[in-house]
Amino acid sequence: MSLSSYSKPTVTSGADVSGKSVLLVEDNEMNLEMLARRLTRAGFITIEARSGEESLDLIGTKQVDIVLMDLSMPGIGGIEATKRIKKNKKTSSVPIIALTAKAMPGDKEAALMAGCDDYDSKPVRLNRLISKIEQLIK
């Protein structure tokens, strides 16, 4: 698809997402840039973290409406970062959607047990992901 034929993604439920901030936690630079670009075009403000450690620093200092958390990262992984975010009184109410490319049996359950509010697999289907985001930040 050429850039000239690109249109803004359709927001599935009609909710106004303009100005809502999404903390993207992803250690793969290409995935991070692609998802940030797509969410920005859909009206979100994106904040990027390239590790679980960085996500913990940023969520304490930035206004974050929702977190998209990659589960497989070196160092503090997505499960541990989620547990720490949910344990902190200041950030415990921020919804988290786990994202993973591996999607092994038990991954969804582990993510939900850690405190994730939802789960989605990669490659990301933007309309499905936006629908999940809208449900969690209304």
Summarize the structure.
By secondary structure, the protein is an alpha/beta fold. It contains 5 helices and 5 strands; from the N terminus they run βαβαβαβαβα. The chain has a single domain, classed as Response regulator (Rossmann fold), CATH 3.40.50.
Spell out the blueprint of helices and strands.
Layout: E1 21-25, H1 29-41, E2 45-49, H2 52-59, E3 66-70, H3 78-87, E4 96-100, H4 107-114, E5 118-121, H5 126-137
Parallel strand pairs: 1-2, 1-3, 3-4, 4-5
What does this structure look like?
- This protein has 138 residues and is an alpha/beta fold.
- The chain has a single domain (16-137), classed as Rossmann fold.
- It is 37% helix and 17% strand.
- The protein is built from five helices and five strands.
- It has helices at 29-41, 52-59, 78-87, 107-114, 126-137, and strands spanning 21-25, 45-49, 66-70, 96-100, 118-121.
- A five-stranded parallel sheet has the order 2-1-3-4-5, with helices on both faces.
- Helix 1 links the parallel strand 1 (21-25) and strand 2.
- Helix 2 packs parallel to helix 3 (78-87).
- The radius of gyration is 14 Å and the shape is globular.
- The N and C termini lie far apart (32 Å).
- Mean pLDDT is 87; it is low at 1-14.
Strand order of the largest sheet: 2-1-3-4-5
Secondary-structure-derived class: alpha/beta
What is the name of the CATH architecture? 3-Layer(aba) Sandwich
Work out the helix count.
5
The 3D shape can be described as globular
Beta-strand residue percentage: 15-25%
In the CATH scheme, the class would be: Alpha Beta
N/C terminus separation: 32 Å
Instruction: Tell me the Rg in angstroms.
Output: 14 Å
Residue windows where pLDDT falls under 50 for at least 5 positions: 1-14
How is the biggest beta sheet arranged? 5 strands, parallel
The CATH topology comes to Rossmann fold
List SSEs in N-to-C order.
EHEHEHEHEH
Whole-number mean pLDDT:
87
Number of strands: 5
Helix content: 25-40%
